[in-house]
Amino acid sequence: MNILIGQPKIERNLEQLKGEIESNPTVDLILYPEGYCTYRELDELSDLAIQFNTTIVLGYRDDTNKDRVLIINKQGDTLLTRRKTPENELLFMQSSVTDGAEEYGYLLCWEIFMGCEGLKTHEHLTIIFNPIGVGMFSEEQFTEWTEEARKIAMERKAMIIGTSHADGSYRNCGISLPIAYCFDENGEEVFLSKNDTRTRVLETDSRVTTFV
User: Cross-referenced InterPro entries, in alphabetical order (predicted)?
Assistant: First the structure.
């Protein structure tokens, strides 16, 4: 499977996603950050998934401006959508979905710190996605976040992939370290990126990553 991992700037009208899906029509799945778009763009995302035969995974804002998860398959069907789990609560379900031969797990942003417990009932995960809203606010947070991802990959025996926006800071703290990462099912680093916002395509069988 070829997965495109984007780190777009915070924007409207799906401009970077549309450009990347048009420029990379052979990718099987596109992963974008939390809050990349709103409910108003959902029909357009569905049309793009159908047109380019590509699964789309990201986070969006609903009509109450709350963050939600989203997986749209190649047929344009919404496989998964639910609200983001509030901090200090148990992970909201549903947090996995089957798409053909694949079972995907989904942890939206800080839900990664609820993931080991919340994903225990899902026995056959292939890939866990972690769309992140904005970059890390410190080197310490970057380390904590990625080590938690590594731990989940090893515990669940599944690849885990995360990505944030290229810009924007947590609660306007003024510091943003854009992040993209992937660990394999053994917790080995496939790629680990900080302050490098280039778009990548990961071939999951060979574990080769290329910039596009």
Answer: C-N_Hydrolase_sf
